[in-house]
């Protein structure tokens, strides 16, 4: 069937087989290989992308169901600059090692930044609990997200009184 959707701000029309999953559509049909296919069973989170503003697992969504949808991948998120500070925090804290989980992890972390600006470390861990990382032990990832939240709170006047999680982030 033919579908037309928006991917990273660009209108795309393609023929897709009914059983084509979004992650394969992105990687194989559109060449957007930033999102990774790991377990392909909805468990690891490596395939996390944004559809109509919400994060989903690309291995569980059929491309054919996305006619008219708006999809953002790690490529689009990066190009927009929305998470430049988060990505810098990942680098600064060695929160990416082999990097396989990182695109999905950043997509999930971006969701925290957008919707849960008051998340503490426990809440960050909870939000990221569906994204597996075999390298880092998660501490550095949580540090990077907590530090980014804290930095944003400092630079957002309405949130200025919320407190500083930077020190906590170093624990
Ligand atoms: S590849 Fe989709 S959750 Fe693992
Ligand atoms: S950095 Fe290797 S799986 Fe997370």
General description of the model:
- It is a single chain.
- By secondary structure, the chain is of the alpha+beta class.
- Helices cover 38% and strands 13% of the residues.
- The chain has seven helices and five strands; from the N terminus they run ββαβββαααααα.
- The chain has a five-stranded mixed β-sheet.
- A hairpin with a 2-residue loop joins strand 1 and strand 2.
- Helix 3 packs across helix 6 and helix 4 packs parallel to helix 6.
- The longest helix has 16 residues.
- It is globular.
- The C terminus is likely disordered.
- It binds FE2/S2 (inorganic) cluster (2 copies).
- One FE2/S2 (inorganic) cluster binds next to loops.
In this structure, how is the largest beta sheet organized?
5 strands, mixed
Number of separate strands: 5
> Which parts are unreliable, with pLDDT below 50 for 5 consecutive residues or more?
159-171
Helical residues, percent:
25-40%
Into which percentage range does the β-strand content fall? 5-15%
End-to-end distance: 52 Å
Hetero groups in this structure are: FE2/S2 (inorganic) cluster
What's the overall average pLDDT, rounded? 93
What is the spatial order of strands in the main beta sheet? 2-1-5-3-4
Global Rg: 17 Å
Assign an overall shape: globular
Order of helices and strands: EEHEEEHHHHHH
Structural class: alpha+beta
**What is the number of helices?**
7
